[in-house]
Structure formats: C-alpha cells, structure tokens
Amino acid sequence: MAGSTLTIKDLHVEIDGKEILKGVNLEIKGGEIHAIMGPNGTGKSTLSSAIMGHPKYEVTSGNITLDGQNVLEMEVDERARAGLFLAMQYPSEINGVTNADFLRSAINSRLGEGNEISLMKFIRQMDKQMEFLEMDLDMAQRYLNEGFSGGEKKRNEILQLMMLQPKIAILDEIDSGLDIDALKVVSKGINEMRGEEFGCLVITHYQRLLNYITPDYVHVMMQGRIVKSGGPELAQRLEAEGYDWIKQELGIEDETVGQEA
Amino acid sequence: MTIETKLPFDKGFVSSFSKEMNEPAWFEEFRLKALNDLDQLPMPRPDKTKIDKWNFTQFNQHTVKSDVYPSLADLPEEVKELVDLDAKNKNLYIQRNQTPAYLALSEDLKSKGVIFTDIFTAAREHGEQLKKYFMTQAINVDEHRLTALHAALVNGGVFLYVPKNVEITEPIQAVYVHDDAEANLFNHVIVVADDNSSVTYVENYISTIETSNTLVNILTEVIANVNAKIQYGAVDTLAKGVTTYVNRRGVAGRDANIEWALGLMNEGNTISENTTNLLGDGSNGDTKTVVVGRGEQTQNFTTKVVHFGKHTTGTILNHGVVKDSATSIFNGIGKIEHGASKSDAEQTSRVLMLSEKARGDANPILLIDEDDVVAGHAASVGRVDPVQLYYLMSRGISKTEAERLVIHGFLAPVVKQLPIEGVKKQLTEVIERKVR
C-alpha cells in the first residue's frame, strides 16, 4: 500500500480572535516532499500548529483529513498516533523527564498496553539513530531539551521523527539557527526517512535547506494563503530573486497577514 | 490569654503509665512538669495556616496494645516492601502503633558501642544518655502546647546513639507501623552522632489502614556533634483522618553536617516543621523535601535553617505538587544570626498545582542580622504548562500520561538527590500512586 494522504481544505485559523490563515488548500501524499516558503508573518507556522492541534490556535472553518479521517476531531495525541508528526520550531523543555523516558513513552503509546517495546530493543534503536544523527549518546539521559543548544534541539526533533516513523511529518523551520554542519545532519535524517510511505511538509524561510532536501513541490505563502505553487525550480528562483516578483505579479504590497491587497 | 485544654489524661494517669513502663524518676518528673505547664503555653502558629479548629489534644486512647512481630515474615506486605528482608546485618527497628515490635542491631555495631533501641528501653537502660539529649538541646518542652503535651504523653519512639569516631556505612532503619484505628502516637526520635562519627538513619511512618480519626505528634531531635555527619531520610505516609504535628529538628556542632531528605506524603492534615540549627562554625545543613497534597487535606510545611556559627551553609530545596482541593503552604526560612559571618543561606521552593481548586503557596523568608553573608531565594507557584503538554501529546502520549511525566519530572530533581536508594525507590512509588 502506498503512503497516507493529508488533505487540507479551505482552512481558516484564528489566534486570540485574529484570523491568520484565510483559506489554505494543500494535499500531501506519501512519497512526496512539499516545501512551504514565504517571508515572516505570512502564516506558515500557524499552518503547522493548526494541523497538530496547538491549544492556542482555533480552526474556524475548513477541514483537515488524514486518509479520509477528520483530523480536527482528534486530540493532539490521537493525531500523532494516526501518523502525524510536527518537528517544532521551539520544542518545549521538560525538566526531570529524560529524553529516553520520553521517547519510550511516545513509542509505547503507539504500541499499546501489553505490547511495550523491550528496554534493550529501545536502547539499541535509540543508540543507532543517535549515532546516525551524530548526537552525543549522553543526550538520552539528559532532561528533555533542557539546556540543549538550538542545534541540539533540532537534532533531537529529527531523532524523534526517526524513532516514531510517522506517515506525514511537518518540519517547522527545522533549519533556523542551524550551522551548516548541523543542517547537513538534519537533512541526512530527513532524507533517510524518504520513501513511498512517508510524506513531508518542510516549512522554511530559506532555500538553503532545499539544497539538501529536494522538494517535489514548492508553495509560497503570503497573507495567510498559498499564493503560488510549483516545482523545485520555484525555490531556486526565490533564492535568486527574492519574493518581490511574486508580490508584483499578484499585486501584493505587504505580504504579512492582515495587510490585504 | 490562654485557652484551657481539657485533657483526657491527668496526672494520675501519666504517673501510673510512667511507672508501668519502669521509667526512671527523672522521666516521670519530666512528664508531670510538662503536663502541669501545658495549659500556660500557646498553640504553635504555623504561618498562613489556621489550626485553631484542628484537633491536636482531644482523644480517647493513650495506649493501645499491639502484638509484636515474631519474625520479619510476619510483617504486613506493605511493610515488607520497605525492608531489605535478605540483608545479613540488619539494623532495623519496627514499632507497631506504640509497641516495640521488632529490633535488630548488628553485633559489629553493638561492639562499637552503638545504641539503637526503643525509647522506653533507652530510658531504663541508658537513662543518663537519654536524659542528656531528651528535649535539652534541640527542642524545648515549653516551646508551645504541643511540645509539652508530647513530653507528658510520649508513648513511642527510638534512641540512636553513635559514639565518637564510629562511621556507620549501612543505613539504620526505623519503621513506625500504624495499623490500629484507635492508636494515637506521641513518638519521640533521638539521633545523636558524637564527634567525628557518621550515620544514615531512615524512617517510615506508614498506615496500613485506610482511615483513622487519630492524632500523631512526632518530635525528632537530631544532634550532630563536632565534625559528625547525619543523613536523615523520612517518608511519611499516614492515613486519611490522622492529624499530624511533626517537628524534626537538628543541631549541628562545629564542622558537622546534617542532611535531610523528606518525603511528606501523609493523607491527613499535617503541620510539619523541619529546622536545622547550625550552631558550630563551619557546619552545614541541607534539606530536601518533596510533598504531594491531594483530596481535601491541608498541609503546612515550614523548613528553616538558622545560622549561628561562622562559615555555615544552609540549603533548602522544596518541591510540592497539589491536586484536588488540597492546600499546601510552604514556608522557607533562612535566618542568619549576628556574628554568623561568611555564612550562606539558600532556598528554593516550587509548587505545582494540578487543579482549579488546589491551593499552593510558597513563602520564602530571609532574616539576616549580619552583613558579611550570602543569601538567596527562589520561589514559584504555577500550573502545568499547556504548551509542555501539547509538546508531549504531539508525540502520541496521552494527556494523562503527559501530566504524569510532567509531575514526575517536577519532583524528580529532588527525589534524585535523596541520598538513600531505598527511600528514593519507595518515594517514587508513593508519588506514582498519589498523582495517578
């Protein structure tokens, strides 16, 4: 069976009563990598938070489905168990909970009571993936994201991605604050996941990341909507020419949300 | 103004109880004087908790008779879990309600002059030593009505004395089992580490019954003489309905160290005081406390370190979780007396509230009467961060499990630092049960 399909239709999202997304349409299938690009303040991160179910974001209309199932009716943990994953821009720090305990709970939440992963098997898997991501093995026993550098947090997000093997992953500015070496490692992790069973939405400001992860589709977001879509060549043109040509083409003066043309 | 406390037990009763226990004359006199003075003394006043409606003085039974445990195999299951049954050299005292029910002290420690016995045997056989420490150095009989009431009615407890230069590596354990719903306990614990000695003492107060409308009044005196070290671990798990006043107080001599690790997990209303008086120059006091409040209970925890000596260091670390409609008040007091130069008083109290009706309060107090010192405090009262829960849940972890992780995480940094492995394990299990 081919991978899953995440479908977003006419999605409107508010935060604190202010509408940020104003009708987003997008379909991501297993085997595909989509990139959403766009300047700051255009709604990119809101889209990722709304898909995952962040408590602050309210979906006012539209729908999101995963293989036909209504995602918006699911609790956050149900969405994850259904196969969604969000690598967060600002992962939470949780004092007193070790990275290893957290990941094991996450894996076991999928396996259900009575089918828990054995400790040995878990440690083997975790060590293997940490080595792949060139992480210090001590990080397994450190408290979740606490005192991690920006780069360590991002690697840790990718570690979770690789351990949990979701059907559809959203990477929210996974490249921000990364030096070139860390960026290569993070990209290596994502490329390792590539395959028919895995769909991915990469949200970024920068073309740089897309040199390492070649997307199948590129979308540009402005004013809370996807205003332009294309292939990888679109990302290259954005890198070379910036966003002004799109704004001109569409008659947009200010691309941020709330500044309607 | 003093309010008269009509005691159910009079002079005649106290006197005949003392005689029945074959106590030395000084002990009987001590009791009778305390009983006589009691009415003149005020009740304790824990900061921010009103206790005038709490019952600390009215009860029906002073003494209940309990059977001893002929062997460890006869212990209740809950108690077996606390004890290392297979250990060869056990140093273990078990008290059943007020009855000394089991005692083991290794030959090695006996030969070194270590005394470890119930308080009544101590009064009969080591009277002079007991007299030297019984409410003379750490706690005074006339501090308030409950200290006096305690002195008059002591009906249980233990005396541990470690002679000079004796370093005990294995922990000494005491388990106070509460299995009689009529048993009121006035427990007196004395731990003395003489010069250059060291000891780890671990105690458990455990109810094996669900509820009991009784009162428990615990006074603990911990004395570390010159260059001695005492690690004191306690896990209290007294039942719902038990009203507890517990005062654990340490006195540290020159270069002495007292480290407390307390898991205060009672189900009933509790007033807990834990004070360390750093009398000697260069002494250290360290207190770590974890607390879970739940149900309807009200608890007040005062942790205090008083610096008298120069170059003394006091640290307080409290982490408390409050759920349901429970109230937990944390008062952290660092007091540096005039002349205690170069001293350092640090404290951190953090309270995590898990429900709308839960009430938590952390009051850091620094009282400093000396210029050349270092002092610091941190306090916070908060709720579980919804963004943290979102993050955990976004990995598939259910809300309940995510909350459990956050709560354990909140208490873990303190639990982890407890010096005694067995206490750590037991405490983790108790926490697990209470926060579920």
Protein topology:
The complex is a heterodimer of chains A (261) and B (436).
Chain A: E1 5-15, E2 18-29, E3 33-37, H1 44-52, E4 57-66, E5 69-70, H2 76-82, E6 84-87, H3 99-111, H4 119-132, H5 150-164, E7 168-172, H6 180-193, E8 199-204, E9 217-222, E10 225-230, H7 232-241, H8 244-250
Parallel strand pairs in A: 3-8, 3-9, 6-7, 7-8
Antiparallel strand pairs in A: 1-2, 1-4, 4-5, 9-10
Chain B: H1 11-20, H2 25-37, H3 77-80, E1 92-96, E2 99-104, H4 107-111, E3 115-118, H5 119-125, H6 127-133, H7 145-153, E4 156-162, E5 172-178, E6 185-193, E7 198-207, E8 215-224, E9 229-237, E10 243-252, E11 257-264, E12 270-278, E13 284-293, E14 298-307, E15 313-322, E16 327-336, E17 344-353, E18 359-368, E19 374-383, H8 386-393, H9 399-415, H10 421-435
Parallel strand pairs in B: 1-5, 4-6, 5-7, 6-8, 7-9, 8-10, 9-11, 10-12, 11-13, 12-14, 13-15, 14-16, 15-17, 16-18, 17-19
Antiparallel strand pairs in B: 1-2, 3-4
Structural overview:
The complex is a heterodimer of chains A (261) and B (436). Chain A is an alpha/beta fold. Chain A is 34% helix and 26% strand. In chain A, a hairpin with a 2-residue loop joins strand 1 and strand 2. In chain A, helix 5 runs parallel beside helix 6 (180-193). Chain A is globular, with a radius of gyration of 18 Å. Chain A starts with a strand and ends in an 11-residue tail after the last helix. Chain B folds into two domains: 11-280, no CATH class; 385-436, no CATH class. Chain B is 22% helix and 38% strand. Chain B contains ten helices and 19 strands. Chain B is globular and about 65 Å long. The termini of chain B are far apart. Chains A and B meet through helix 2 and helix 3 of A and helix 8 and helix 9 of B. Chain A: Belongs to the ABC transporter superfamily. Ycf16 family. Chain A: Keywords: ATP-binding, Nucleotide-binding. Chain A: Pfam families: ABC_tran. Chain A: InterPro entries: AAA+_ATPase (IPR003593), ABC_transporter-like_ATP-bd (IPR003439), ABC_transporter-like_CS (IPR017871), FeS-cluster_ATPase_SufC (IPR010230), P-loop_NTPase (IPR027417).
